[in-house]
Amino acid sequence: MEKLIKPMSGYLALLIAVVSFVAAIFSFANVEASSLYVVLGVILMIATFFILKGLMIINPNHSRVLNFFGKYVGTVKENGLFFVNPLYSTIKVSLRSDNLQGQTLKVNDKMGNPIEIGAVIVWQVGDTYKAAYDVSNYTSYVRTQSEAAVRHLAGSFPYDNLEDEGAEITLREGGDTVNHILEQELSDRLAPAGVIIKEARISHLAYASEIAGAMLQRQQAAAIVAARAKIVDGAVGMVEMALHKLSEKDIVELDNEKKAAMVSNLMVVLCGEKAATPIVNTGTLYQ
After folding, report:
1. Average pLDDT rounded to a whole number, residues 138-148
2. At the topology level of CATH, where does 97-209 sit?
3. Of 55, 42, 46, 73, which is closest to residue 15 (Cα–Cα)?
4. Tens-digit pLDDT profile for residues 154-191
5. Residue extents of the structural domains in the chain
6. Do the bridges between strand 8-9 and strand 80-83 make them parallel or antiparallel, or are there none, so unpaired?
7. How far, CA to CA in Å, does 241 sit from each of 238, 247, 262, 273?
8. Taking residues 6-28, what's their average pLDDT?
9. Is the separation of the CB atoms in 262 and 245 below 8 Å?
10. Is residue 138 a contact partner of residue 119, using CB atoms and an 8 Å limit?
11. According to the 3-state scheme, what is the secondary structure of the chain?
């Protein structure tokens, strides 16, 4: 598990290193006075480089994972100049949010139709210990698992409900629900790397080029059928209302044959694609 530590300030260590370096220069300059100055100068110079090696600068939204001969010591997330044991090895881990624009993938949806899908993912490291030690390369891990999650999402739902009319969730109309499912799956997959998913959204969704034309025709046909059904439903209601009003107000009495003719004419007028041309009857209804 991640363990946060706060090292000592590095400004005092930096000052000591500068003083030690100046003293070493002074010792080498007075080597003719005594041979001890050579030994003192060497010791001071080694101490200077030893202190400087222990200094580290941590920028905003960055961290350092400290390791001492194979043992995890802790993580420093505070910003500034610090001094740590010069024998510590450090691993830089960025805490900034990062965007992953996944490539457009060609996969099959739940119904087996080839589709193209892509996603944009916003992520950041939340646990530096897992990011540094539980996976070999956390950035590569994010890319690979993100692609796997998008592929799994595409295969779990149909593109639309043309073939699966009972589908509660489709990729095209799922909207925030589909994005939430993707975020949850990414969070589960990337948890071993200590990565937090801040946002995940489908950025590209379309039928594959080899079936795009056929699916477009199918969608157009479905839209035409739905429109025709709506027109017929409205026309039947209008005919029913017309017959009811004529009978209720006793405007004219029609036998079954004339009612059938009237219904036929009204349906043709109301359901026709083009405007009907009226013909004025100057005789009686039976001529």
Report:
1. 93
2. Tetrahydropterin Synthase; Chain A (3.30.479)
3. 55
4. 898 888 776 656 668 888 888 889 999 999 999 999 99
5. 10-94, 97-209, 217-271
6. antiparallel
7. 5, 10, 13, 22
8. 90
9. no
10. no
11. CCCECCCEEHHHHHHHHHHHHHHHHHHHHCCCCCCHHHHHHHHHHHHHHHHHHHEEEECCCEEEEEEECCEEEEEECCCEEEECCCCCEEEEEECCCEEEECCCEEEECCCCCEEEEEEEEEEEECCHHHHHHHCCCHHHHHHHHHHHHHHHHHHHCCCCCCCCCCCCCCCCCCCHHHHHHHHHHHHHHHHHHCEEEEEEEEEEEEECHHHHHHHHHHHHHHHHHHHHHHHHHHHHHHHHHHHHHHHHCCCCCCCHHHHHHHHHHHHHHHHCCCCCCCCCCCCCCCC
At which residue do the structure tokens 């595409």 appear? 154
239: tokens are 């005919």
